[in-house]
Specification:
Length: 712
C-alpha cells in the first residue's frame, strides 16, 4: 500500500513539474521561449539583466542553469503606456501629462553626453541669458523656448532649476537604482557646489517609487551673489494592466542675494581688480535678497475598461478597443519675499566734465519707495487647487490610425495674497480668490510607422480667464532611405490668454500697479527636419504676437498695441571623424520690434572634442572645448524686486566667445569631469562677458565633478 502511494505521489509531482513552464509563460510559444533561454533571458517580457549588456555595465557571464530548483518568475510589466521596446530597457524614466492619459519617455542621465555642462540652463539649444552664478535667474536665448507661466510668473526665471508638475520623473528599474553627484569649483571663499541624489526602486515590475534631491548654490565670485537652491521630489507610480496612479510631492526652496549688477561696464572691460569680489555692484550695500518657497502635490489616476474580452494571450490592453476614465488633483503654492534697505551707489565714470575727465555720480537703484522710505519687505503668496476629470477613448488600438480621443473638464481655485496700503500697517494680507472652469480635448493617431498626427484644444467658457483659448495641431512624417530614418515634423499653436493676476495687480515698495490689460494672442508655426543617424536637425519657426505683455525699459508692466512678428531658423549638425567630434548649434532670429521682443540676430553653441577608449570597455575619455556666442544687441536687464527680466534700452551686450576647456571620463559606472570655465578671460574677445545687461558672467575658474551610479 505504501509503495502504491509513493508511486502515485511521484507521478503527481512529475506532472506538476512538467506543467510549470506552461504556467510561467502563457503568452509565449515554444520557439520564442527557447530563443529567450538561449540568449540568457529568464523572462523576455521583463527585459534583460542590467549587468549583461550595454557599455555602462560589466559584461558578466550568465549564471549556470539551476536544474535542481525552478526560479519563481515575476509577473511582467503589462502597462498600456509602454511598448515592447521600452519594456526591454533595463532602466527608463518618464513624465506624465497633466491633462491626458499619456506618458513621455525620457533618457537616463548616465552617459558622457553633455555631462560636462554643469549649469542646467545651458543644456538645451544655444543656451540662456543668465545673470552668471550658479542658481541665479536665467531665460532661454531662443524666444520660442521661453516658458510663460500662467501662475506665479515671478518664479519663471528659475524654470531651469525647479521641479514642477510637468517635469517630475518616474522610474522603472530592474534593480534598485542609486546615483550620487557632486561638483565643486573655485576657492573655498567663493565656491560653487552641486549635490544630487537619485534613489529609485521597483516593488514589482509595475509599482515603484523614487526620490530626487538637488542642492545647488555658490558663495559668489562677485559681491552679494550668494545663492542657495534646494529641490526635492518624492514620487510613486503604479502602471498596471488596467489601473494606473502617479503621485508626487515637490518642494523648491530658492535663496538669492541680489547685487543689481555692476555700476558700469568699465568695471569689467577697462579695470582689473585683484579679486572679482572687488568689482563695485549697484546693490552691494542694500542687503537685497529674494527667498522663494514652493510646495506642490499631485495625484493622477486612470482606469482602463476594455471593450473586448481580455484573454490570457493579451499582454496588455494597448491593442484592444478600450475606454479610460481618470482624475487629477493638484495643490501648488508659491511664496516670495524680497527685502532690501535704502542705499546709493557711485559710478566713478558716470559722466565727463568739459575737459573730458570722468566725474563720479551717485545713483539710487530704485526710483520709487511707496511704502517704507528706508527698507523693503515685500511678501506675496499664490495657491492653486485644481481638479480634472477626463475620459480617453481608444477606438481600435493605442497606436492606430485614430489612437485616442480625449476629453476633460477642469476646475481651478486660485488664491492670491499680498499687502495693500490699507492693510500694510496692520500686517494683514489682502486675499483675492478666483475660480476658473475649462474644457479640453485632443485626438491623435499613427499610420503604421510613417505618420503621427494629433490636435488639441482648451477653452475657458466662464469664470476666471473666461474666453481664453488654446488650439494646436502636429504632424510628423517618417521614412527610411538606405536604412536611415528621415523625420519631418510640423506644429501649429494659437493661444489667446488673459494676463496673469500679477500683471494687473501688484503692491510693493518699489512697484505698484492696478491696471486692466487686454488678452494676448500668440500664434506659432514650426517645421523641423531631422536625420538622427547623421546628427542633423534643421528647423524654422514663425510667430506673431498681438498685444504683447512685457516689462518695459523702466521695468513697469507694459502692453504693446498691434502685432509683433518673430522668425527663427535653427540648425544642428554634428560631424564625427574617427574619435573627433565637431558639434554645432546655430540659431538666427529676426524680430519686427526689438523694443518689445529683443533677440540677438545670431547665437551659437560649438563643441569640439576628441573621444577615445583609454582601456577598452573600462575607461573612456573626452577632451575638448565648448564655446557660446551671440551677436551684439540690447539684451534684457534684470530687476531684483520683480525677479524678472525687462527690456532695457541703455546697454548693448554680445560679440563675446565664452569658452570652456574640459576633460570628461567614464570609468565603468562612474563619471568624472575636469573643466576650466571661461578659459579665454583676458586672452581673446572684447572683454564684455555679459549675457544680461550689467550682469557679468563668471570669471575663469577650475571645476571638478563626480557622478556614481549603483544598480544593485
Amino acid at each position: 500500500m505504501r509503495k502504491t502511494s509513493t508511486i502515485i505521489f511521484r507521478l503527481l509531482l512529475w506532472g506538476l513539474l512538467a506543467a510549470l513552464p506552461q504556467v510561467a509563460f502563457p503568452q509565449l510559444d515554444a520557439k520564442t521561449l527557447m530563443q529567450a533561454q538561449r540568449n540568457g533571458i529568464n523572462n523576455p517580457l521583463y527585459g534583460n539583466n542590467p549587468y549583461e549588456n550595454g557599455e555602462d555595465e560589466e559584461n558578466l557571464p550568465p549564471n549556470p542553469a539551476d536544474t535542481a530548483k525552478e526560479k519563481r518568475i515575476r509577473k511582467p510589466l503589462e502597462s498600456y503606456f509602454f511598448n515592447d521596446s521600452i519594456r526591454a530597457l533595463n532602466n527608463f524614466l518618464w513624465t506624465i501629462s497633466r491633462d491626458y492619459n499619456r506618458v513621455k519617455i525620457e533618457p537616463l542621465d548616465t552617459t558622457l553626453q553633455d555631462w560636462r555642462i554643469d549649469y542646467p540652463f545651458y543644456r538645451k539649444g544655444v543656451g540662456d541669458i543668465a545673470l552668471g552664478p550658479l542658481g541665479q535667474a536665467s531665460m532661454p536665448t531662443d524666444y520660442f523656448e521661453r516658458p510663460r507661466y500662467e501662475n506665479f510668473s515671478f518664479s519663471q526665471a528659475y524654470d531651469a532649476y525647479t521641479y514642477n508638475l510637468e517635469n517630475v520623473p518616474f522610474y522603472n528599474v530592474k534593480k534598485p537604482y542609486l546615483q550620487m553627484t557632486y561638483l565643486e569649483s573655485g576657492q573655498k571663499k567663493f565656491r560653487e557646489e552641486q549635490f544630487g541624489l537619485t534613489v529609485a526602486h521597483n516593488i514589482s515590475p509595475s509599482t515603484g517609487f523614487n526620490i530626487n534631491y538637488k542642492a545647488r548654490g555658490t558663495r559668489g565670485q562677485y559681491d552679494r551673489s550668494r545663492t542657495k537652491n534646494h529641490n526635492l521630489e518624492v514620487a510613486f507610480s503604479h502602471t498596471g494592466k488596467r489601473y494606473s496612479i502617479h503621485a508626487a510631492y515637490i518642494n523648491n526652496h530658492i535663496e538669492q542675494e541680489e547685487n543689481g549688477g555692476v555700476v558700469g561696464e568699465w568695471a569689467i572691460v577697462d579695470t582689473t581688480f585683484e579679486m572679482p569680489s572687488g568689482v563695485p555692484m549697484r546693490l552691494a550695500s542694500a542687503e537685497a535678497e529674494n527667498i522663494f518657497r514652493n510646495n506642490a502635490f499631485f495625484v493622477e489616476q486612470s482606469y482602463g475598461i476594455p471593450l473586448l474580452p481580455v484573454t490570457e494571450s493579451d499582454f496588455s490592453i494597448a491593442h484592444l478597443p478600450a475606454v479610460y476614465i481618470g482624475h487629477t488633483f493638484e495643490y501648488n503654492s508659491w511664496s516670495k519675499i524680497y527685502s532690501d534697505i535704502r542705499s546709493t551707489y557711485v559710478d566713478d565714470r558716470g559722466s565727463r566734465d568739459e575737459n573730458g575727465n570722468f566725474v563720479p555720480t551717485e545713483h539710487s537703484f530704485y526710483k520709487n519707495w511707496y511704502i517704507n522710505p528706508l527698507q523693503s519687505r515685500d511678501s506675496i503668496y499664490e495657491r492653486i487647487i485644481s481638479n480634472r476629470f477626463f475620459v480617453q477613448a481608444q477606438p481600435w488600438n493605442r497606436n492606430g490610425v485614430v489612437g485616442t480621443l480625449n476629453g476633460g473638464v477642469g476646475l481651478d481655485l486660485h488664491t492670491y495674497s499680498q499687502f495693500a496700503m490699507d492693510t500694510y500697517l496692520t500686517g494683514e494680507y489682502r486675499k483675492t480668490k478666483k475660480t476658473g472652469f475649462y474644457v479640453y480635448g485632443s485626438i491623435d493617431g499613427k499610420i503604421r510607422r510613417y505618420v503621427d498626427w494629433g490636435a488639441d484644444f482648451r477653452l475657458y467658457p466662464s469664470g476666471y480667464r473666461s474666453g481664453d483659448l488654446s488650439v494646436g495641431a502636429n504632424l510628423a512624417l517618417s521614412a527610411k532611405v538606405k536604412g536611415h530614418p528621415l523625420i519631418l515634423e510640423g506644429r501649429f499653436r494659437m493661444e489667446r490668454r488673459s494676463p496673469s493676476f500679477w500683471d494687473e495687480n501688484l503692491f510693493s515698495n518699489h512697484f505698484v500697479w492696478f491696471t486692466p490689460l487686454s488678452k494676448e494672442t500668440d500664434t506659432r508655426f514650426e517645421v523641423t527636419f531631422r536625420v538622427p543617424d547623421y546628427a542633423l536637425e534643421v528647423g524654422a519657426k514663425q510667430g506673431v504676437v498681438t498685444d504683447k505683455i512685457y516689462y518695459g525699459a523702466d521695468a513697469l508692466i507694459t502692453q504693446a498695441p498691434g502685432a509683433v512678428s518673430l522668425t527663427s531658423v535653427y540648425a544642428r549638425k554634428d560631424f564625427r571623424i574617427g574619435g573627433l567630434h565637431l558639434d554645432h548649434r546655430v540659431l538666427l532670429q529676426w524680430s519686427s520690434d526689438q523694443e518689445v521682443i529683443p533677440v540677438p540676430l545670431a547665437s551659437a553653441f560649438l563643441s569640439y572634442y576628441y573621444e577615445f577608449w583609454v582601456v577598452r570597455n573600462v575607461l573612456r575619455l573626452q577632451i575638448g572645448a565648448d564655446c557660446r556666442y551671440n551677436t551684439n544687441y540690447y539684451s534684457p536687464g534684470y530687476n531684483p524686486a520683480l525677479s524678472a527680466f525687462y527690456n532695457q534700452r541703455e546697454v548693448r551686450t554680445g560679440n563675446y566667445p565664452y569658452t570652456d576647456l574640459f576633460v570628461t571620463g567614464k570609468w565603468k559606472r562612474m563619471r568624472i569631469f575636469l573643466k576650466y570655465q571661461h578659459i579665454n578671460k583676458g586672452l581673446w574677445g572684447n572683454g564684455e562677458y555679459f549675457s544680461t545687461a550689467r550682469y557679468p558672467l563668471n570669471p575663469g575658474m577650475f571645476k571638478i565633478g563626480l557622478s556614481w551610479g549603483f544598480y544593485d
